[in-house]
Amino acid sequence: MGKVSGHILAFSSVFFWSALYVSVKILLDYLSPFELLILQFVFGYIMLFAMKPTFLRISLKEEAMFAIAGLCGISIYNLFLNLAIEQTYASNVSVIIATAPLFTGIFAFMLRIEKPYRNFFIGFMLCIIGIILLSYGDGEAVGFNPFGDMLALISAIGWGAYSVAIVSIMDRGYNIIIATRKIVFYGILFLIPGFFIFDFKPQWHELLEPMVAFNFIFIVLFPSALCFLMWNKATLLIGAIKTNIYVYLTPIITIIVAMIAIDERLGFYGIVGVILTLCGVIIGECRNKRV
Fold it and tell me: How close are the terminal C-alpha atoms of the chain, in Å?
């Protein structure tokens, strides 16, 4: 039952994170990538603190683990994600972020946290082919922005590293709300140098507009707080590699949300891509002989 719960939590996290791409694209018309990131995680931290207003007393070595997780999973992943979405298409970003499980697998195999198995690589290849096809609308390739896509790749690497780091943290039995809040805290802390690089002059009155307020509340409640709780719990229940396989579903969910929210349509190649990606997820979940 625990494993079933882990898969449900992993899918739920990816579902809301996928919808994040559309919400961020909307909010970037009103806030800069850095302004949006700071605001969403400060409010997310406040919400997590309200849920469990206590603190952990741990060693410096354990603090370092939380700092690494915050740097990779909050600062690097989300900052470069927002910068990438501003520079290129949300669909491009979702396709590139879907490569994160490859980096999770590589880091996990290198650190001997998990042992490699053949179906992981077979499923990965199917998913990569599928998500590439998803970048084709009615048969014409979406124009890739080299700089924006590079930012998205850095974001994917950051998430891969975070997914490995969180295993060590969750295995120690910390309260998941407190642990997640501490990770968010370090993420915000590592973003402080950004105030010397990026402008931070949010137009507060614009956040009161209904569409802006709805999307901002959404990213604070789910992608910035609750999703991290669900994801960290899923990692504890089913492991880093199995949890990250659900990242492959990101382009599918993003495209569906975009179809509903901004009236985009999925072409023939996109449909084939959906099928291949789903097959890749299923195959990647089946362990076989290790390589």
Answer: 29
For residue 11, what are the contacts with CB-CB under 8 A and spacing of at least 6?
246, 249
Please answer whether residues 267 and 138 qualify as being in contact, where contact means their C-beta atoms are separated by less than 8 angstroms: yes
| Half-sphere exposure (Cβ direction) of 202: Cα atoms closer than 13 Å | 19
Structure confidence by residue, pLDDT tens digits, 234-280: 888 888 777 877 877 777 787 777 777 766 666 677 678 778 877 87
Torsion angle of the four alpha carbons 264, 224, 81, 206, in this order, in degrees rounded to the nearest 10: 70
DSSP states of 206-244: GGGSHHHHHHHHHHHHIIIIIHHHHHHHHHHHH-HHHHH
What is the number of other CB atoms lying within 10 angstroms of the CB of residue 278? 16
Closest C-alpha to 26, from 267, 244, 234, 207: 207
Cα(226)–Cα(217) distance, rounded to whole angstroms? 12
The amino acid occupying position 140 is: E
239: alpha, beta or left, given left = phi > 0 and alpha = psi -120 to 50? left
Residue 185 reports pLDDT greater than 70: yes
Q: What is the number of alpha carbons within 13 Å of residue 131 lying toward its C-beta? A: 26
